């Protein structure tokens, strides 16, 4: 299938998402909304030439969990939603993206203004409230995207939400691979790239696989820097294992070093 045809189908799929969000989604139950988001996200991955492979799904915690993961691309959001729809904390710039920004707002995305001093505190209180109410929330602790070949240092501020709510933290790791099973930078949303640049790179590299590893939940009790260090160690170990083509194993989290952020 040509790139032009694939892009046309993606545009039609986004238009269908807008229609669903403006009609059916507004009246749907919480469970039905999850089904709609999951199905829409899975089809978007398919149209982008990407197959999702989930490891460790038995670790999935159903409710009241701060889910954290590594960040490579805008497509990460739809990878996670294809696994388990979860509201995200995203940079405020996404809210201004045509169509996509509106869709993100509609499904509960929380936008943080990084340049605004104190906004992280506002977001933290919002997250704590959502977690206390039994809802899941997703945060990218790196604070920005990487090229997918390494893990940037975690910022621990938003882990305070889990501490305040007495909620568990669930680490997840995502690795993108090409048709030969090798890690690829194709989906990376870095430097001066825009959304269309990344989409073109993914279509050029297709077929792709994204491997998502669901780590064992970290129970409440630790402070935010300890939670951050344990989550970072778990995700880092899972990324290393998946890049080598092996299944991640649970690490000894007591050995995770604590760093300031």
From TrEMBL:
<protein>
    <submittedName>
        <fullName>1-acyl-sn-glycerol-3-phosphate acyltransferase</fullName>
    </submittedName>
</protein>
<keyword id="KW-0443">Lipid metabolism</keyword>
<keyword id="KW-0012">Acyltransferase</keyword>
<dbReference type="GO" id="GO:0003841">
    <property type="term" value="F:1-acylglycerol-3-phosphate O-acyltransferase activity"/>
</dbReference>
<dbReference type="GO" id="GO:0006654">
    <property type="term" value="P:phosphatidic acid biosynthetic process"/>
</dbReference>
<dbReference type="Pfam" id="PF01553">
    <property type="entry name" value="Acyltransferase"/>
</dbReference>
<feature type="domain" description="Phospholipid/glycerol acyltransferase">
    <location>
        <begin position="65"/>
        <end position="177"/>
    </location>
</feature>
<dbReference type="InterPro" id="IPR002123">
    <property type="entry name" value="Plipid/glycerol_acylTrfase"/>
</dbReference>
<keyword id="KW-0808">Transferase</keyword>
<keyword id="KW-0444">Lipid biosynthesis</keyword>
<comment type="pathway">
    <text>Lipid metabolism.</text>
</comment>
